[in-house]
UniProtKB/TrEMBL annotation:
InterPro entries: BCAA_transport, Leu-bd, Peripla_BP_I. Belongs to the leucine-binding protein family. Keywords: Signal. It comes from Kribbella sancticallisti. SUPFAM superfamilies: Periplasmic binding protein-like I (SSF53822). It comes from the Bacteria. This is ABC transporter substrate-binding protein. Signal peptide: none annotated.
Length: 402
């Protein structure tokens, strides 16, 4: 689908718009961020259908809320942003084709899927075309290295997510973990590596592992749950895609397993208690970049995130479906601060400005720094207990700057 124009160019002669609608001094190449025909065009190559759509639609909507806010404040140096979003159908090959078409149609910034496996092919198209390319909520630490110097992934890293889960397990005295993991995504296997390194290094033990196919929509976890019961662990770690991960938790609780459930952002949705059952959605803990779950319920929610949630609800008629929504919003608001700099006129100068960002406050958090093309955020551990959310721990990023 194509999004409508968000805002109109400021009156002729405004800062950033020349007589021809271009930014004075902007380069004219494919990576230019000049104001063309009264806009800077953002091409979005993300899933609107298929398994990745639950995450990608939320991320695209979070971007659109950020664009609304930026345009209301005058755009980028006086030029409004426009979003052109098209469906990749959760297929990496289609994603690459969509990315090429968007760039051919004038996209000056390319936004790809919020996952390494789903988005890397499209991201390489952007890099090869010399276009500033973003995956606003992807967490893989290898994404940037696999693409190039004009690419940035903005999600909290898999290292920080895995470390935060491990540290909470250690802090809670959970000595044994049974792991349920979809190995079809680097997002989960990278968390697994980080979790085991810290957890086992501090005396914990992974007493069993069951591989599941949440990407394929697995809905029957009876054999997995039998293995969990036999192992009787202190905590069950669930690393799988929603809604399958929610179905697993529902069946786990229905089978009488009361052990805490530990996971990541794939559990961070208001839909989880509806799927699992409010009374059964207890003792669930997950690592996250931003706490938005308690907006309107928990008075400790950050005011900036409350504003974001209100804007999201007004625009889309629903509470943010999933964590990629506020995550994408945070990342693009950080990128916007780089785009606003006077000497940023194209992809290369924008990339240089982004890389220099450190200790940058945004709604609901602080961007510590960029490293090897990915963002480093301090992780938060959220607890869900019978339909009520709260922050139970915050940790400093362990990943060291190079």
């Amino acid at each position: 689908m194509k999004a409508t124009v968000i805002g109109l160019c400021v009156a002729a002669g405004a800062v950033g718009c020349g007589a021809d609608g271009g930014q004075p001094g902007a380069s004219q190449g494919s990576g230019s961020l000049e104001c063309r025909d009264g806009k800077i065009l953002i091409g979005v190559a993300k899933a609107e259908s298929g398994f990745a759509s639950f995450f990608d639609v939320a991320g695209r909507r979070g971007l659109e809320v950020a664009v609304d806010e930026i345009n209301a404040a005058g755009g980028v140096k006086g030029c409004p942003l426009k979003v052109d979003a098209r469906d990749t159908k959760s297929d990496p090959a289609v994603g690459a084709q969509v990315a090429r078409t968007l760039i051919d149609d004038g996209a000056q910034i390319l936004v790809v899927a919020d996952d390494f496996d789903s988005g890397v092919a499209a991201a390489r198209v952007g890099q090869n075309a010399g276009v500033l390319t973003l995956s606003l909520a992807a967490s893989s630490t290898v994404f940037g290295k696999a693409v190039g110097d004009l690419f940035f992934s903005g999600g909290i890293t898999t290292t920080e997510l895995g470390d935060a889960q491990a540290q909470l397990a250690v802090d809670r005295g959970w000595k044994s973990t049974f792991q349920v993991i979809d190995t079809g995504l680097a997002y989960f296997t990278e968390q697994d590596q980080a979790y085991r390194k810290l957890y086992e290094g501090k005396g914990g033990k992974v007493v069993g592992t069951e591989r599941v196919d949440s990407l394929g929509g697995q809905a029957d976890f009876s054999s997995v749950i039998s293995a969990v019961k036999a192992a009787n662990p202190d905590v069950v770690q669930a690393l799988a895609v929603y809604p399958s991960v929610g179905t697993f938790v529902k069946q786990l609780r229905a089978a009488g397993v009361k052990a805490p459930v530990l996971g990541n952002i794939t559990l961070q949705t208001r839909e989880l208690p509806q799927l699992v059952g409010v009374n059964q959605s207890n003792d669930i803990h997950y690592a996250a970049q931003v706490y938005f779950d308690g907006a309107g319920i928990d008075a400790k929610t950050d005011p900036g995130i409350l504003k974001f949630v209100d804007s999201y609800k007004r625009r889309f008629g629903t509470f943010p479906e999933q964590a990629n929504a506020p995550g994408a919003y945070q990342t693009f608001m950080a990128v916007n601060q780089a785009l606003q700099q006077k000497d940023v006129v194209d992809a290369r100068s924008a990339a240089a400005a982004i890389r220099q960002q450190t200790g940058l406050p945004v709604a609901g958090g602080t961007l510590s720094r960029w490293q090897d093309g990915y963002a480093v955020w301090d992780p938060t551990m959220v607890k869900l207990d019978r339909g009520k959310w709260s922050v139970e721990a915050t940790y400093k990023a362990r990943e060291k700057a190079k």
